[in-house]
Amino acid sequence: NNQRWRPQSEPPKHQPLTWYKVNVDVPQGDDPVGLDMQSMGKGLVWLNGNAIGRYWPRTSPTDDRCTPSCDYRGKFSPNKCRAGCGKPTQRWYHVPRSWFHPSGNTLVVFEEQGGDPTKITFSRRVATSVCSFVSENYPSIDLESWDKSISDENPLAAKVQLSCPKGKNISSIKFASFGDPSGTCRSYQQGSCHHPDSLSVVEKACLNINSCTVSLSDEGFGEDPCPGVTKTLAIEADCS
């Protein structure tokens, strides 16, 4: 409070060792909030006295051997699954919504290298879909409290759990396959083994509610479509 802030219609840009202060509004909705610091160099930032942390959106090399697709299976190497070449190594910085006041929020930035503070923005992470990919041999117990000395002769069946953000429900099931599907979220594919009732079983359990659980031993799956094959349940659902 003893420092004299100088009000300016246009703050200085690309000036090192500079303090900035601005009043900000609360981002709408209940979605997680991130502070986009892509336009800045290096420094620290606070919201209402709470330290968001140090930012340094350093641009990664463009010739860093990025790969268009990724598969972590097999032998590990530091060059495996590189992505984002030529982009900031970190652009968004999480801001807990509990740090915001209904009004009168103050954002303070200390810039060390120089940047453009007029391009700092709040971004909301809006989840429009959720996915899950669970096999029947996945652990179905709490590993944190697992007592290895106790044998479990009747293990629980693996379960798929889906949950939309607060205030949203599962509005549609875009993909559902019980069998041996493959792929990643938003690009699942049916395999050679697929239960024909997969979609109806998932829709019955999940549609129009915020969260749901589907057991891989659900009665709706009935007879084993392909004995001897480890079953997997893959689901992609829309939230709205």
Structure characteristics:
single chain, 240 residues, mainly beta, Jelly Rolls, 2 domains, 3-stranded antiparallel β-sheet, 1 helix, 12 strands, elongated, secreted, Galactose-bd-like_sf
What does this structure look like?
The chain folds into two domains: 18-124, Galactose-binding domain-like (Jelly Rolls, Sandwich); 129-140 and 157-239, Rhamnose-binding lectin domain (RBL) (Jelly Rolls), CATH 2.60.120. The longest helix has 9 residues, at 198-206. Strand 3 and strand 4 form a beta hairpin. It is mainly β and 240 residues long. It has one helix at 198-206, and strands at 18-24, 33-36, 43-47, 50-55, 92-95, 105-111, 121-124, 129-135, 159-163, 170-179, 211-215, 232-239. It is 4% helix and 30% strand. The chain starts with 17 loop residues before the first strand and ends with a strand. One of its GO terms (cellular component) is apoplast. It comes from Aegilops tauschii subsp. strangulata. This is beta-galactosidase. It is found in: Secreted, Extracellular space, Apoplast.
Provide a brief overview of the structure.
With 240 residues, the protein is mainly beta.
N-to-C series of helices and strands: EEEEEEEEEEHEE
Largest sheet, order of strands side by side? 1-6-3-4
Report the strand count. Answer: 12
Q: Specify the overall morphology.
A: elongated
- CATH class call of the largest domain: Mainly Beta
Nearest-integer average pLDDT: 89
Secondary structure class reads: mainly beta
Q: Residue share in helices?
A: under 10%
Number of domains: 2
Task: Examine the secondary-structure arrangement and name the CATH architecture of the largest domain.
Answer: Sandwich
> What is the fourth-level CATH superfamily of the largest domain?
Galactose-binding domain-like
Count of individual helical segments = 1
User: What is Rg?
Assistant: 24 Å
What is the fold-level CATH name, i.e. the topology of the largest domain? Answer: Jelly Rolls
Low-confidence stretches: none
Strand residue content: 25-35%
Report the span from N to C terminus.
45 Å
Described by strand count, sense and barrel closure, the largest sheet is: 4 strands, antiparallel
